[in-house]
Structure formats: structure tokens, C-alpha cells
Amino acid sequence: MARRGFSIAEELVEEAEAVVKVLRGLKASVVTAESCTGGLIAAVLSRVPGVSDTLQGGFVVYTKEQKTRALGVPATLLEARGSVNAEVASQMVLGALERSPADIALAVTGVVGPAEDEDGNPPGQVYFAVGARWGRPEVEARHFGDKDPDKVRHATVAQALSVLHRTLTARGQ
């Protein structure tokens, strides 16, 4: 079986550069808490030259158990509501901020597909949350449709960077 090479789309790197520029202007750093993207947002941010002054790192929390262990997302919440919802995304942000020196956290939780998750959430359903030490997390939901998992993952990373950029820009004004 032939393997495809791994590359990061240039438009994602360009958006990451814009995010890093705003972070530098704010003299702030970011940490990611990623489920369905498996660390890809942090990987894209890490492509920006000299990013170490703004990127603290990331948490990859693909399972419910890891969301609880690494980020402190209440197991009772995950059992009652599943892992793909606004409250879990918000809790992921709070946990990442508590466990990192970063000023800002970005979290994503969703279903890339090709099938629904164990809780019945459809492929393409994703929640994004951004929070900072100076405010409450803001959460946004998107449904990218029943696409190929790689397309959902790409769309999720693009939207996450856009949400982060928009939030940071609003904070900087």
C-alpha cells in the first residue's frame, strides 16, 4: 500500500501566521486542547517561524477518559451528555488554561466521521471554544456535513484558526 506524504495546506499556514501576529501584538500565548483534530491545530501553528514565543503546546484528548485525565473534564458530564457539545468544549478550555501557563486556550471537539460517534453525533459536527484568563470561554458550533474525514478535519482546523483569530482581534481592539 502506497502512503501519501504529509503536508499542511498553505492557506492554513497563512491563517496561523495571522494568529501568531495578533498573539505577539497582545504579548500572549496559546495552548490547544484537541479531540477530533488529533493535534493538527498545534502542528499548523508550529509551522510559523519563531512561534515558540506564543505557542505553549497542546493537549490531544481523543477519548472521554483522556479528556477527564488530562483536562479535568468531569466524567459525569461526559457520561450524561457525551463529548461533542458546547459544555465539554468550554470545560476543555478551562482545563487547558488551568494546566498550562498560556493566556489563551483553543479547544475543539467533534466527529470527523465517516460514521457517527458512540453518542450518536453525526459526522461533521464540531464545537469550538476559545477562552482566556481574562474572560469566559466563547463557544461556536459548526456542522461541516457528511464529508470525507480528511475534509472535515481540514475544515475544522481552518475554522478553529479563524475563530481564534477573530477572538484575538476583538480582544486587541
The pLDDT mean sits at 94
Domain count: the total is 1
Helix content range of the residues, please? 40-55%
| Element pattern in H and E | HEHEHHHEEEH
Detailed description of the structure:
By secondary structure, the protein is α/β, with parallel strands linked by helices. The protein has a single domain, classed as Alpha-Beta Complex (Maf protein), CATH 3.90.950. 43% of the residues lie in helices and 18% in strands. It is built from 6 helices and 5 strands, in the order αβαβαααβββα. Strands 2-1-3-4-5 form a 5-stranded mixed sheet, with helices on both faces. β1, α2 and β2 form a beta-alpha-beta unit. α1 packs parallel to α6. It is globular, with a radius of gyration of 15 Å.
Write the layout of secondary structure elements.
Blueprint: H1 10-26, E1 30-34, H2 40-45, E2 55-60, H3 64-71, H4 75-81, H5 86-98, E3 104-110, E4 125-132, E5 138-143, H6 149-172
Parallel strand pairs: 1-2, 1-3
Antiparallel strand pairs: 3-4, 4-5
Helix pairs in contact: 1-6
